[in-house]
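Hi R.,

Here's the input for the heme C complex you asked about:
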Amino acid sequence: MRLIFAGILFTSLLTWLPVSGNLLAEETVELSPKDKLVVETLLRLKSFDLDSSAPAKAAVLRYLRAKPGTDRSFELIERFKPVEIAGQLTKYSLAHPGETGGVRAAELLFAMNRGGSLSAYINSENEREAISAVELIGHAAGKQTVPLLLTVVSEGKASATVRSTAVKALGKRADGQRELLILVTRGQLADELKFAAANVLLSSTDTKVAAEAAKYLELPATADSQPLPALVELVKRKGDPATGAEVFRTTGTCIKCHKIRGEGKEVGPDLTEIGSKLSREAMYVSILDPSAAISHNFETYSILTEDGLAVSGLLISETDDAVTLRSSDGIDKTIDKDVMEIFKKQKTSLMPQDLQKLLTVDQLVDLVEYALTLQKNSG
Ligand code: HEC
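And here is the predicted structure with heme C in place:
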């Protein structure tokens, strides 16, 4: 009896609601108490076909637009799967990639068969966005995850950073690890992804996977010929920042390319505040696998001239007539476009790929400890 009454009340309520088109294009959304009441009632009804009532649908969309990321909104989407919300849901997930809400949004997209609007961002020009899309796909439950990540890894369209993010995401799942291992044993994994793959596979809790991977992959050796421990091990260690500061200026050769508070050369980025930017793990990756984490504006370019002169370095300037590159010694070279045969962006970083060879494991740990102390406003 009460339910019938609620139903009648509900229908009369709906007739009073505006049916606004183009809801998703509006910036601010007015949410009336009636909208809230409709939403609450809808959620309590056992079954309701949202497409049968334009006003109810409009109220739901207004609600979703006004309260993105709330439990209620997720509940509504799960229940009614309104595809009109896919665009907004995609944006929401990309803006919150490392959060439960962002992952839930991604999962709902796949549940609504709208996962494509998220995976399209893998090829975004904006690398941060591409990385977020890959991370979200990695976290979202569902059958789509492993095949999608494998495509990112094998296709080679995305940058090394995005692809190594996909390797890392595959490494977090048992089925992903197995697929990754197959690529490795078939020799189908690109060289620039081997460091990332070695880290996840060699430290796998599945001892069979780890043993098989060890036949094909190894972590690079350090100065004392000790193999590098896997990242999961390294991040647990504590170092001595004072020794690290010393290593930065001497054995590590970092000072030849990086400035800290005015000291050093400016080939790579200034590291004065690097501790505020990178996590401990990201710091290790930046040092040990620079091509997997090339920072923006520091891509390497290479030029080949008609006379066979090869120059590579960072792009300092480009005019209509000439290009200036800064080499790894910090020397700028300007080349006339007339004599350029090839001018292209490299996939690898200008930062050497094998710096760990200069360092013992302890020195490396000290160096990272030091780099983490380089914080904003630390004087
Ligand atoms: C030959 C020059 C060179 C040397 C030597 C070098 N780097 Fe780099 N480094 C670069 C360049 C260029 C970049 C930017 C491109 C990239 O991210 O790979 C970079 C990037 C980095 C980054 C990431 C910066 C960011 O903003 O994300 C860190 C951290 C770093 N280097 C630390 C070190 C440390 C520590 C050493 C010494 C062990 C070192 N580098 C030695 C050239 C160098």
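One thing worth noting: The longest helix spans residues 2-15.

Cheers,
M.
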